[in-house]
């Protein structure tokens, strides 16, 4: 036999042995899995259907992926459907934001907003830009906020260093503010040079003393940072009212632990309420203390459920004098986002922004505080329609967290609580962060912010007003259960101030 043929035969023989070995190993593995499955007591499926029962878990895991990429229609997914996300992606990339042929949105379900265009829309040459709005006229350093659309609270910890860097740089470029979230101020928030809203959560990260109480010294130092323009006291967040912040231990790196003043690698769980605030007067005391010490405008963030407490708060403001009022209220929607929260709270507690926003605006009007206290709205307002609807209902500003996450490249993998985010936004694993290049994503953040403002303006112009804050309730109708729409000012009629002659 020629030598080459002998070599081929040897290789074939070697491969056959390998194949037999592999099949043997496979069979052995099946036998081991079979025995493991029938003898274990935890999973009924695996006990009743040994080995094949395991595919159920695999397919369940892969289901998210297949639904998103192959089966879900444009308007089907939750929390955000493909049409909503694609709009943000295109805006962020600076691509053409027009669509062809016609709308894929079904406009008949109850709750759908429809803006009322006027016969003579505002000519482009007559359109005006939105003027900066002052917040906190009685603070030592009031804030002239330039942008109606801003970055909502997301803590350094919940999101990564490159994400914070991209957001802070992008925010500077677009002229909007960035809220730090409850994890304190990191050097990356400041590096971008944007206006910062520092959030004080229930654990007071960044401004706490050794006992976890608010430290006036630290607060004073924060007030001296030029970029910090306002302070937001967080009472609650739409996704988890009554539950404090949750940062799983896997995400508590040495750097995050240092900024928060907590042990590395351990779960960071904030108290579910500010222990020292349990009444309207406690809340006002705290707001005034923070404002006096820092010199900055101070407001609070809450998701609204019960609302009688707001009447008590506004009455207390009236009794003390309007200087004592919070400078702003951030109303978060019950369906707001989070890094991690119990599903029961995410799903079922707290009013949606469409209900809570007009409710709070009307309460402010009745107490004659509508011009004194600015209203910031957040909760799935990631596209121009949602934001324009909130402005018509009475919001002065719109905040978004997840809209900006999409601008950063978020693919809605729903893994923010796992440190495995495939786009590097909510993970501290260097390998995954490599994909998020802050310089490139900062441009996207800025483009998204600017395009939002521009397209909210386009809706306003179509309704005949020169700039977004000109939108009023009568500019928008809402579809009812019988399929007919009624104007928002009929749903939420105008209320009178009890202090009209002031
Ligand atoms: C990853 C992530 C982290 C968040 N961290 C905070 C936080 O630290 N403090 C807070 O008040 N809200 C936090 N939120 C809530 C957002 O600020 C916002 O109120 C909510 O997501 C609604 O806005 P959106 O629908 O545009 O995301 C977080 C949301 C996300 C998605």
Strand order of the largest sheet: 4-13-12-11-10-7-6-5
What's the tally of helices? 17
Kindly report the oligomeric state of this protein. single chain
- Helical amount: 40-55%
- Tell me about the largest β-sheet: 8 strands, parallel
Q: Which ranges are low-confidence, i.e. pLDDT below 50, for 5 or more consecutive residues?
A: none
- For the record, give the distance between the C-alpha atoms at the N and C termini, rounded to a whole number: 111 Å
- Shape, please? globular
Strand percent estimate: 5-15%
Q: What's the count of strands?
A: 15
Radius of gyration using CA atoms only: 27 Å
Mean pLDDT across all amino acids = 95
Q: Strand pairing plus helix content: what structural class?
A: alpha/beta
Say which molecules are bound, naming each kind only once: flavin mononucleotide
Give me some keywords for this one.
41% helix, globular, eight-stranded parallel sheet, 15 strands, three-stranded antiparallel sheet, single chain
What is shown here, in short?
With 502 residues, this protein is an alpha/beta fold. It has helices at residues 3-39, 44-48, 54-71, 82-93, 161-174, 187-191, 216-224, 254-260, 280-294, 308-320, 343-348, 353-366, 384-393, 402-407, 430-433, 438-462, 488-491, and strands at 113-115, 133-135, 143-145, 149-151, 177-179, 195-200, 228-234, 246-247, 268-269, 298-303, 328-332, 374-378, 397-400, 476-479, 485-487.
């Amino acid at each position: 036999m020629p030598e080459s043929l002998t070599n081929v035969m040897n290789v074939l023989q070697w491969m056959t042995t390998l194949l037999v070995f592999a099949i043997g190993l496979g069979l052995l593995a099946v036998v081991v899995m079979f025995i493991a499955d029938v003898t274990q007591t935890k999973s009924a499926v695996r006990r009743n259907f040994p080995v094949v029962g395991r595919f159920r878990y695999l397919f369940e895991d892969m289901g998210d992926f297949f639904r998103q990429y192959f089966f879900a229609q444009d308007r089907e997914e939750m929390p955000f459907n493909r049409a909503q996300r694609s709009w943000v992606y295109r805006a962020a990339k600076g691509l053409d934001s027009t669509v062809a042929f016609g709308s894929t949105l079904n406009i008949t379900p109850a709750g759908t907003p429809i803006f009322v265009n006027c016969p003579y829309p505002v000519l482009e040459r007559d359109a005006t830009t939105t003027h900066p709005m002052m917040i906190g006229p009685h603070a030592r350093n009031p804030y002239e906020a330039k942008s109606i659309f801003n970055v909502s609270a997301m803590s350094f910890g919940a999101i990564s260093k490159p994400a914070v860097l991209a957001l802070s740089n992008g925010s500077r470029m677009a002229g909007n503010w960035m809220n730090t979230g409850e994890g304190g101020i990191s050097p990356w928030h400041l590096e971008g040079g944007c206006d910062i809203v520092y959030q004080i959560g229930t654990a007071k990260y960044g401004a706490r003393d050794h006992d976890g109480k608010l430290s006036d010294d630290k607060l004073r130092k924060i007030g001296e940072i030029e970029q910090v323009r306002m302070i937001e006291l967080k009472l609650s967040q739409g996704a988890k009212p009554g539950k404090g912040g949750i940062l799983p231990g896997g995400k508590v790196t040495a750097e995050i632990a240092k900024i928060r003043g907590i042990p590395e690698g351990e779960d960071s769980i904030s108290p579910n309420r500010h222990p020292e605030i349990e009444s309207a007067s406690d809340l006002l005391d705290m707001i005034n203390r923070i404002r006096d010490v820092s010199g900055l405008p101070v407001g609070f963030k809450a998701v609204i459920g019960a609302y009688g407490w707001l009447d008590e708060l506004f009455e207390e403001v009236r009794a003390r004098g309007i200087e004592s009022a919070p400078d702003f209220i951030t109303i978060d929607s019950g369906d707001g986002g989070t890094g991690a929260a119990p599903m029961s709270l995410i799903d079922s507690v707290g009013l949606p922004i469409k209900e809570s926003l007009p409710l709070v605006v009307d309460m402010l009007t009745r107490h004659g505080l509508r011009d004194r206290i600015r209203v910031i709205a957040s909760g799935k307002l990631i596209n121009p329609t949602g934001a324009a609807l909130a402005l018509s209902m009475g919001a002065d500003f719109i905040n978004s967290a997840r809209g900006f996450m999409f601008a950063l490249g978020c693919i809605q993998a729903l893994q923010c609580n796992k440190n495995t985010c495939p786009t590097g936004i909510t993970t501290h694993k260097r390998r995954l962060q490599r994909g998020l290049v802050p310089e490139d994503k900062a441009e996207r953040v800025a483009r998204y912010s600017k395009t939002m403002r521009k397209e909210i303006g386009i809706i306003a112009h179509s309704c005949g007003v020169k700039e977004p804050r000109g939108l009023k309730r009568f500019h928008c109708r809402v579809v009812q259960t019988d399929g007919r729409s009624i104007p928002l000012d009929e749903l939420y009629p105008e209320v009178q101030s009890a202090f009209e002659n002031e």
